[in-house]
């Protein structure tokens, strides 16, 4: 058994967290990750409704039978924090507040009896979330799929581990037991996994996304803002998104076109144009596997690898 602060704090058996991928991680995926011994987080994106959150919470609890968690984009709460209120109504055990200063919201999370964690991309981010009073941090590296920072996972993880007394998790590029073993050996208490789960049937989103991921290699991603512009998503400019390359990124990434021109050329229904956010671990995802099997396989391989040094 891989016992860490994360497993002890949440009463889980596997130090893995299913990343709260907006538009891909709902209650079914979160529930299967939790049922396999980890913690599944549903992605509470800014466009989700309270009704949708209620459905995901119910599904996750019915399947997982364990702790419940959600992830929110902190920057979007400044204009409307009702999504956080809707999340807290379901009494989650963990709330991830990432991409922005969580200080206005950590107290509410704690008052609801939940742990507050934040993904961070720099040491400066670490200092901000420490001051906000979060319970743990996730060092999210540039390899990660979706929105992320610009420092690689291992350099960032090493810096963060040396700079804080908070429990630290790792994210970005971790899609096998070898990756989990590496970050645990470095001193992390667990890992977020996202791309490793994207070919699982429990994900939501366009039907073509799984096939696109399985056909991709680790070099077939791009760090870009063109999909935010295409879909009028007001992400702060410091965070780009890592996605699979396609004909749309070939045409518009780095082209210098204005947002309206890019948006007019976009349609999410077209598999050669629509966004599939995925990380550099894409080359490790080779088959459609149930999310629970993915989690169990990663944990078993990591435990076997780490057992060699005991």
From TrEMBL:
Broad EC category: oxidoreductase
SUPFAM superfamilies in UniProt: Inosine monophosphate dehydrogenase (IMPDH)
CDD domains linked: NPD_like (cd04730)
Keyword presence, Flavoprotein: yes
GO molecular-function terms, A-Z: monooxygenase activity
Keywords, alphabetical: Flavoprotein, FMN, Monooxygenase, Oxidoreductase
InterPro entries: Aldolase_TIM (IPR013785), NMO (IPR004136)
Keyword Oxidoreductase appears in the UniProt entry: yes
EC numbers for this chain: 1.13.12.-
Record's protein name: Nitronate monooxygenase
Organism: Rhodococcus chondri
């Amino acid at each position: 058994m891989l016992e860490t602060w994360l497993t002890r704090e949440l009463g889980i058996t596997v130090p893995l967290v299913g990343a709260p991928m907006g538009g891909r991680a709902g209650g079914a995926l979160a529930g299967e990750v939790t049922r396999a011994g980890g913690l599944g987080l549903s992605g509470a994106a800014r466009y989700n409704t309270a009704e949708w959150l209620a459905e995901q919470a119910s599904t996750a609890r019915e399947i997982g039978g364990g702790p419940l968690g959600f992830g929110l984009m902190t920057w979007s709460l400044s204009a409307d924090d009702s999504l956080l209120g809707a999340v807290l109504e379901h009494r989650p055990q963990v709330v991830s507040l990432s991409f922005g200063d969580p200080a206005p919201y950590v107290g509410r999370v704690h008052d609801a009896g939940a742990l507050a964690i934040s993904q961070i991309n720099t040491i400066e981010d670490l200092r901000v979330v420490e001051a906000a009073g979060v319970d743990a941090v996730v060092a999210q590296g540039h390899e990660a799929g979706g929105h992320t920072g610009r420092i690689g996972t291992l350099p960032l993880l090493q810096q963060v581990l040396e700079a804080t007394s908070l429990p630290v998790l790792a994210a970005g590029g971790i899609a096998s037991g070898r990756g989990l073993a590496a970050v645990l050996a470095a001193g992390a208490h667990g890992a977020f996994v996202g791309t490793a789960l994207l070919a699982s049937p429990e994900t939501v989103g366009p039907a073509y996304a799984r096939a696109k991921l399985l056909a991709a290699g680790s070099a077939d991603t791009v760090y870009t803002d063109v999909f935010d512009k295409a879909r009028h998503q007001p992400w702060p400019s410091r965070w780009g998104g890592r996605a699979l390359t396609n004909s749309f990124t070939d045409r518009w990434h780095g082209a210098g076109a204005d947002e309206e021109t890019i948006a007019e050329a976009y349609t999410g229904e077209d598999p050669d144009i629509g966004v599939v956010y995925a990380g550099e671990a894409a080359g490790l995802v080779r088959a459609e596997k149930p999310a629970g099997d993915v989690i169990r396989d990663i944990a078993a391989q990591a435990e076997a690898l780490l057992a060699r040094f005991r």
